[in-house]
Design brief:
Distance between the termini: 52 Å
Strand order of the largest sheet: 1-3-2
Number of helices: 10
Oligomer: single chain
Strand content: 5-15%
CATH superfamily of the largest domain: Metalloproteases ("zincins"), catalytic domain
CATH topology of the largest domain: Zincin-like
Radius of gyration: 25 Å
Structural class: mainly alpha
Shape: elongated
Bound molecules: zinc ion
CATH class of the largest domain: Alpha Beta
Order of helices and strands: HEEEHHHHHEEEHHHH
Largest sheet: 3 strands, mixed
Length: 279
């Protein structure tokens, strides 16, 4: 049988085949529709409720010729599993998290799609970046431009008078470590944060470095809030040697200050971010 040429028909035929071979139970439910979404770097597909039933929206970069068929199959099968679990259907999902406890992978395994999913996963891990760059060079260039703009905006922001310098933060980190008798943090660096970065600090997954949100340079962020963040990371490191949070944090900050820092983050941080974020 010839595979249909146009992308939407190809997606339809994959849905059709998967329904027959692995999801026969879904054929008794509402009809499942397919739509082509936007090209995207992360989202391969999604499912939502349409006027007559679930609609699976597919990233068009998965519908280009040359992609291993397992990738499209596994992507659509993944969404069909969500439908099995009630997402995109009239059945209530009661606010459940769609990927809780690996239920999608379990469902794929149960339906004999373990190998397909594995092939797709391996391909995505090693090839998706290249595929995306080759087929969406304009999006890659736009993202680079946005990154450059953001970096420039942050550099201007951090260079303003009265801002804390990175050295100031490093000094706070060193004195906090000394006060708590902890091994010092590996390093501290500014995070040129985006609106997605909701936290005041992060730990780099690649190196032993704490990334501090650029807004922590602003004098409107109280020093005890920064010390509190540093205490969290120092404790995280020291907890491996059995140090507990109470002991580490109160060596660095008084109990009042700890409470004030927690309150500031709970009540002020989001609004502060909204007001001052330079990007
Ligand atoms: Zn999913």
């Amino acid at each position: 049988m010839m595979e249909p040429d146009d992308p939407l028909s190809r997606a339809h035929s994959v849905v059709h085949r998967l329904l027959h071979e692995h999801f026969a139970d879904l054929m008794r439910g509402e009809p499942i529709d397919v739509a082509i979404g936007r090209r995207a770097a992360r989202r391969l597909a999604s499912v939502k409720r349409g006027p007559s039933g679930p609609v699976i929206t597919v990233n068009p970069l998965l519908l280009l010729p040359g992609l291993p068929p397992e990738v499209l199959e596994a992507t659509i099968a993944h969404e069909l599993c969500h439908i099995v679990h009630g997402f995109g259907t009239a059945n209530r999902t009661m606010g459940l998290q769609p990927h809780r406890g690996g239920i999608v992978d379990a469902e794929l395994n149960r339906r004999g799609l373990k190998n397909t999913a594995q092939v797709a996963k391996d391909w995505c891990r090693s090839q998706w970046g290249t595929w995306y760059a080759a087929h969406a060079p304009d999006l890659v260039a736009a993202r680079e431009r946005r990154n450059e703009d953001a970096e420039a905006a942050w550099k201007t922001f951090l260079a303003q008078p009265r801002m804390r310098s990175l050295e100031d933060i490093q000094r706070l980190a060193a004195s906090a470590a000394a006060l708590a008798g902890c091994e010092p943090l590996g390093g501290v660096r500014w995070l040129y944060a985006t609106p997605r970065n909701r936290c005041l600090s992060y730990r780099s997954t690649r190196e032993d470095v704490i990334l501090v949100h650029g807004l922590a340079a602003h004098p409107g962020v109280p020093e005890h809030v920064i010390l509190y963040q540093l205490a969290l990371w120092l404790h995280r490191k020291a907890s491996r040697h059995g140090r507990d949070w109470q002991e580490v944090s109160t060596a660095i900050l008084s109990r009042d200050r700890i409470e004030q820092a927690q309150r500031w983050m709970r009540r002020q941080w989001t609004a502060f971010m909204r007001k001052h974020l330079p990007v």
